[in-house]
């Protein structure tokens, strides 16, 4: 009886992977991307808090919990978040989809050669 509730999710997962109903490549790359961004955001907030501690010369815990510093850090990080996310997305896509990108480049090269050949001089 305890096995029955487990069978449906396992069957659904099997069907999804068997018939490629999920774009697992995209899910994996997005997971890696947002994990890296989360780590980067945590490290950068820590760096901002530690830097502010050096100037204020208070305890790091008190400085990190300061609402003004939190708002300032959010604005600074938000300004740089999108460019960093785009750059990280390109890097991760290059690593994960190297073969697919090479295939796309080859298709574009063939298309360009074919298009140039068919153009009247």
Keywords for this entry:
121 residues; mainly alpha
Question: Could you characterize what this model shows?
Answer:
With 121 residues, the protein is mostly helical. It has one domain. Helices cover 86% and strands 0% of the residues.
Overall mean pLDDT stands at 77
C-alpha geometry: flat
**Count of individual domains:** 1
Determine the strand fraction and express it as a percent band: under 5%
> Uncertain regions: pLDDT < 50 for 5+ in a row?
none
N- to C-terminal separation? 77 Å
Helix content: over 70%
SSE sequence, one letter per element: HHHHH
> Would you report the number of β strands?
0
Radius of gyration from the alpha-carbon trace, in angstroms:
24 Å
Query: Sheet bearing the most strands, described?
Result: none
Q: Structural class, from secondary structure content? A: mainly alpha
Number of helices: 5
